[in-house]
Amino acid sequence: MAVLELDAVSGGYGETEILHNVSMTVEAGEIVVIIGPNGAGKSTAMKSVFGLLNLTAGRLLLDGDDITGTGPEKVVRLGVCYVPQTENIFPNLTVHENLEMGAYLRNDDYSGRLDEMYALFPPLAAKRRQPAGTLSGGQRQMVAMGKALMLEPKILLLDEPTAGLSPKFRGEIFRVVRDINKAGTPILMVEQNAKQALSIADRGYVLVDGKNRIDDTGKKLLANKEVAEMFLGGGKKTKS
Amino acid sequence: MEQFYGYFLYGLSLLTFGGIYSILTLGLNIQWGFSGLFNAGIAGFFAIGAYVSAILTTAPSARHLGGYDMPIGVGMLVAMIVTAAIAWGVSRICIRLRSDYLAIATLGIAEIFRLILKNEVWATNGARGVSYVPKPFENITEPWNQISMTLLVLGTVIVLYFLLERARTSPWGRLMSAIREDEDAALAAGKDVERLRIQAFVVGGAIMGLGGAMMAHYLKFIDPQAADPLTATFLVWVMLIVGGSANNKGAILGAFLMWTVWSATEILTSRLPDALAIRTAYVRVFLIGLVLQIVLQKYPGGILPERRLRAASGKQPQNPE
Amino acid sequence: MMDFLSFYLIPGIVLGSIYALGAIGVSLTFGILRFANFAHGEIMTLGAYVTLTLIQLTGWHPVVLLPAAMVVVSIVTLGVDRYFYKPFRTSPVIIVVIASFGMMLMIRSVTQFVWGVQLQAFVPGVQRPLIFFEALRISPRHMIIVGCALVLMAVEHWLLTYTMIGKAMRAMSDSPELARLTGINTEMVIKATWIVGASAATAAGVFLAYDSHVDTMMGFQILLPVFAATILGGIGRPYGAMAGGLVIGLAEELSAYPWIGSEPLLSPGYKAGVAFAIMVAMLIWRPSGLFRGRVF
Is residue C295 in a domain? Predict the structure, then answer.
């Protein structure tokens, strides 16, 4: 049984339909990547899980349970944590306070989890009393991820975690993503940096114009000619 | 017969006040209905227009600035020009910022003007106000003088209505509508959104100034109470919201309707014994406020909702997270 | 010098403290609920009148009665939010601003209906100033006001910095959308915001009345300086609001000082204009405020 499943999902914001019959799964322990050209609906597919979309068809399943139509507040409680692409930290709260907010729904003693986060993201430990907004882009991304992980979610959704980061930080973020996954959390990730993303992915889905185009293992997609043509060749596309 | 005549005159006053308030709501409609600008300082423009016209047209007086003895028409025209200039200044500062800021700034402007009008006694006679303001047709015999005044006001309303309807369906009006629907798209299409908004604000302000001038001449008197946020700002807002914002017919309907309610409840409560009468004034305000809340929640379009120029859907643009 | 301190600087600090308390509430609701609450002034007025009634019932000192007044006013404010603002949580902001404009008049009319419009004194009698250093005059009331204001601001600081709900309030002020995605109970944070804001406003109203008198227009009269203080300090920055309040209060009182020559720099009738001028200057020059709050 998949941890997360999108089953023939169609929908969009308001009246425009962006996704058409999109299906994908994330199995236990996996890193699954969604890639595709700009405007393909990648972020939209991710947001559908989090209840931020008007669905006109299809189902969303978490561990086999139907969560279609559940709003974001409840989806968090069910164990799905989401790191949006922008505005994903509280800039005026300190790093530590951001993590505390991430743990807002917890009633237990989570100091152990906090230590784990600082171990996972060493640069944050030294800056824990600094306002998160003063950190560099890469470190802010770490705060965003650490915050989302405080709830020990069943699955972590990342929306373009390396957008706007320098190549050095990109590598670091991908390393961290792999570490998080190794520690036991399955990850669904939308990425523009397809090549690097696929190299750490177990499987990938290519979305074009809001529809499934190809899906395969990470390795096979990297070797796939069509994928290469679409956007692996000619240098990396960086989002401005 | 006497009583009938009394009712007749009262009816005329309803029409006149309703008409003057219609001018105000039409002016507000350009700012709010067309361009989405929240003007919380209608009272300011209203008062400025009233005082300018009053000062220009009254005879010389030791108590206030004046003595220019200008014809009423000139007074009203200059009133419009002055309020337009002030509206221009205000919008230049605030137009780029969000509606809250514009609301606060305009409320502040109105309050400052009220203070100036109250404090600069040499110019305005302070709290005692400017009296003996000339009234159109006042030398004609009763009741024709009243009737003529009413007709003048109603005529102005009609002329304004047609002008504004023409503006609404003109390319300018369609552009304003497009900006209100989707500002980003308009900006992307290269439209100077700021300039258009300023234009709307200025025109609306000038019309409010005209309304103020008319009131001064109708009442033959004006005092800083004219800048009272309750009657000069809030009431106009209620009129527009209830009647139907972004709809000129709605603006006029709302003005006449709410004024009649306001005036009728005043008469009813004035029949009560004094101690009670004062208190009921507050009940009236409370109820008018409640009407506003109910309309906002249940009938946001007002009695006469906006007639869209295109067949596009009337939904608010969704904000994707 | 002593005159300057006694009649201009100290009243400026007192007024500034009152503005600061008023501005805290506006800043919080502006930052978290994203709208300028025009009814805030009336909350201050209501706080003063509720306290007046409590004084008449118990004979106790207004400061002692403050917590009780805060509870009453908070309940009223939560009710207003529930029935008149909550329906507009997802509507365009301007609608709830209009609603708050309407609430301003509705609350004021209730206050006028229940208590009437005559000026009333909180505590009868004239206050005699204490005299320090033979010339510095400070009235005990002023000392109480400033002292209490400092205590309240310290409580506010503790709340925002050391409690979960306070941090959640700051988080929501940063980003309501992210707060929702994080699982923060946004409605609870909103209620907490109203309670804190209403309590601060109650204190502002009580201190204002304590310093002068109660009347039904007092809240509206200081609404503009309070908004100015909020914008000056930066929206969503409670500490900025405190600083902004102090600046505005001082500026208002000091504007009447005969800096040049023997006439007041600004005619006292225009004191309200000072706050307004500062606000307009901020809007033109730096809309995010001194402490870089939100700009919408």
Answer: no
Contacts of B316 in chain C (CB under 8 A): 91-92
Does residue C290 lie in a domain region?
no
With CB atoms and an 8 Å threshold, state whether A87 touches C184: no
CA C12, C13, C19, C24: dihedral to nearest 10 degrees? 160
Q: Are C172 and C29 in contact (CB under 8 A)?
A: no
Instruction: Flag the least confident range among B192-196, B203-207, B295-299, C99-103.
Output: B192-196
pLDDT in tens, C200-253: 999 999 999 998 889 999 999 899 899 999 989 888 778 888 999 999 999 998
Does any domain span residue C171? yes
- Contact indicator for C30, C249 with CB cutoff of 8 Å: no
- Hey, which residues 30-49 in chain B have their CB within 8 Å of chain C? 36, 38, 40
Say yes or no: ipTM exceeds 0.90.
no
User: Which of C91, C97, C105 is the closest to B100 by Cβ?
Assistant: C97
**What would the two tokens of residue A152 be?**
């020990």
Contact B320 A15 (CB under 8 A): no
User: How many structural domains comprise chain A?
Assistant: 1
CA nearest to C145, candidates C248, C13, C4: C13
Q: Is B81 part of any domain?
A: yes
Residue B310's pLDDT is what?
Answer: 45
3-state DSSP call for residue C139?
coil
How far C290 CA lies from chain B's nearest CA (Å)?
A: 16
For residue A144, tell me if it sits in a domain: yes
pLDDT digit string, tens, across residues C148-180: 999 999 999 999 999 999 999 999 988 888 998
What is the pLDDT at residue B316?
39
* Strands A4-12 and A19-26, sheet pairing: antiparallel
User: Can you say how many angstroms the Cα of residue A5 is from the centroid of all Cα atoms in its chain?
Assistant: 15
Chains with at least 3 CB pairs less than 8 angstroms from chain B:
A, C
Neighbours of chain A (3+ CB pairs under 8 A): B, C
C99: Cβ–Cβ under 8 A, 6 or more apart, which residues?
B292, B293, B296, C84, C85, C88
Which tokens hold the place of B285? 């305000």
Q: Which residue of B has its CA nearest to A88?
A: B321
Q: Give contacts of C273 with chain B, Cβ < 8 Å.
A: 112, 115
**What is the domain count for chain C?**
1
Rounded CA separation C149/C159 (Å): 15
Q: Report the number of distinct structural domains present in chain B.
A: 1
Which of B28, B35, B104, B321 should be substituted to probe chain C, the one whose Cβ sees the most C Cβ atoms within 10 Å?
Answer: B104
Sign of CA dihedral A67, A71, A74, A79: positive
Per the DSSP assignment, residues forming a β-bridge with A207 are A212
> Per-residue pLDDT tens for B257-267?
999 988 988 88
In chain A, which residues touch C (CB < 8 A)? 50, 72-73, 76-77, 82, 84, 87-93, 97, 100-102, 104-105, 147, 151
What confidence tens digit (pLDDT) does each residue in C72-86 have? 999 999 999 999 999
CB contact under 8 Å between C105 and B104, yes or no, is no
Contact status, residue A65 vs residue A73, Cβ threshold 8 Å: no
pTM above 0.80, yes or no: yes
Phi, psi of C121 (to 5 degrees): -95, 140
Give CA torsion, residues B259, B262, B265, B267, to 10 deg: -70
Domain span holding position B189: 12-226
**Domain range for C184:** 2-115+160-285
CB–CB of A104 and C178 under 8 A? no
Residues near B261 by beta carbon (within 8 Å), at least 6 away in sequence: B288
User: For residue A201, what is the domain's CATH number?
Assistant: 3.40.50.300
User: A86: nearest CA in chain B?
Assistant: B321
User: Counting one residue from A and one from C, how many pairs have CB atoms under 8 Å apart?
Assistant: 54
> Does some domain include residue A15?
no
Identify the domain containing residue A100 by its residue range.
30-40+70-232
Please give the interface size between B and C, counted as residue pairs whose CB atoms are below 8 Å apart: 117
